[in-house]
Amino acid sequence: MKETVIQFGEGNFLRGFFCDFINTMNDKGLYDGKIVIVQPTKGGKTEVINSQNGEYNLYLRGIQNGEEVCEHKVIKSVSRGVDPYNNYDEYLKLAENSDVRFIVSNTTESGIEFNEECKFEDKPALSFPGKLTQLLYHRYSMRLAGFILLPCELIDNNGDELEKCVLKYAEFWGLEDTFSQWIEKENTFANTLVDRIVTGFPTDEKALAAARALIAGGADILEIQLPFSDPSADGPAIQTACTEVLNRKYRTADGLKFISTLHKEFPEVPIYLMSYGSLVYTPGVENFCRKAAEAGVKGMIIPDLPFDFDEGLTEACRKNGMINIPVAAPSMSDERLSKLATAGFPFIYAALRAGITGTETTVDSTTLSFLKKVNAGGSKVYGGFGISNGEQSAALADYVEAVVAGSVFVRIITENRDNTEILAAKVTEKAKEITHI
């Protein structure tokens, strides 16, 4: 089967939606083509994709026509993955295939941005629009027809914004005027709507009220999460909150502005920013850390950046007066856990169980043994994942510097979003229970 689609992005959304869509059309004889997945950042999933010949399992669970559905599929619509960081020539060669007519992307809400640090000579350019411009220019040089581009990033007029970025790079890099004309005439940048059903999340004002209530309830540190379209470490409560915030056109800059407001009101309360690697990497790690520090952030928790391959995050935090707080997981081997524990980090975030946030954690002897291993090198330990009551925090008190609770408060905020006064009272009450005030 021919390769007909280039996909920028390896996340659950594209693999669970778009790849399944192509897979279904192939099975029904409505289409005849396969997808090549381009790794959007360093340290991606190309090796895993290729080791499985592009195949993977998809489980669909939900309600359809009033009936419960639980479906298992083997997705076979992906031919291979391409890593432009280690094989740039193979990446450019995709543009030489006249069978490829579609490009789909989901590189997160901050992916469609112009970065003047990108150069045409980079192999590849750091930003997604930069990489795309390089690919399009090679296509243009081959005198082939353009593409139909379907960006799925969660911003308004995503197709128009992506085209603007590509044209800006063409001008910034001094490429021929005829290339810009080819972009506009031979390519279609479609604006797509990514819609999801959500239960709700508060406005900035209600989020600020919740933060005040947390501090009133005894919170010593505030962990603020930037909304992200594929929060792989988070459970339903936080996933839902992220989705609604993004659907109201919330951007990274808005999140940092909120943090700045919070920091000005409570300058004595440390703020830790929790997010995902793509949001940090896309604008440049150093650039992101500088902006975060200016907003008042004191620490960074980025769970999908390994402590020993963090794309320069630890050093960028140090330069900007912050600390990087790596995540330790129970699934780590003893050797790797020991390496992290003795790496000299001031703090380590201990995920108290495998999986995602929100599901209740049982604090038992296995949990405490894990915490002792994390603490073996002298780093102070924060314990989180599934903490929702005072009994859990009491059991952890002698083993951690602080207990981290997130989903429980997001649920309280969601359930009481229509009454700010009740919302604040319940948040404070729960915070007092967990902090034992």
Question: Can you give a write-up of this model?
Answer:
With 437 residues, the protein is an alpha/beta fold. It folds into two domains: 187 residues, NAD(P)-binding Rossmann-like Domain (Rossmann fold), CATH 3.40.50.720; 232 residues, Alpha-Beta Barrel (TIM Barrel). Helices cover 41% and strands 16% of the residues. The chain is built from 17 helices and 16 strands. It has a six-stranded parallel beta sheet with strand order 5-2-1-6-7-8. Helix 12 links the parallel strand 11 and strand 12. Helix 9 packs parallel to helix 11. The longest helix has 16 residues. About 4% of the residues have low confidence.
Task: Describe the structure using short key phrases.
alpha/beta; TIM Barrel; 6-stranded parallel β-sheet; 16 strands; Rossmann fold; 2 domains; globular; 17 helices; 437 residues; 4-stranded parallel β-sheet
Q: What's the short version?
A:
With 437 residues, the protein is of the alpha/beta class. It has helices at 12-27, 46-51, 88-93, 128-141, 158-172, 177-186, 204-216, 236-247, 252-265, 277-281, 285-295, 313-319, 334-341, 365-374, 390-396, 407-415, 420-435, and strands spanning 3-8, 34-38, 56-64, 67-75, 78-82, 102-105, 148-151, 188-189, 222-225, 271-274, 299-301, 323-324, 327-328, 347-351, 380-384, 402-403.
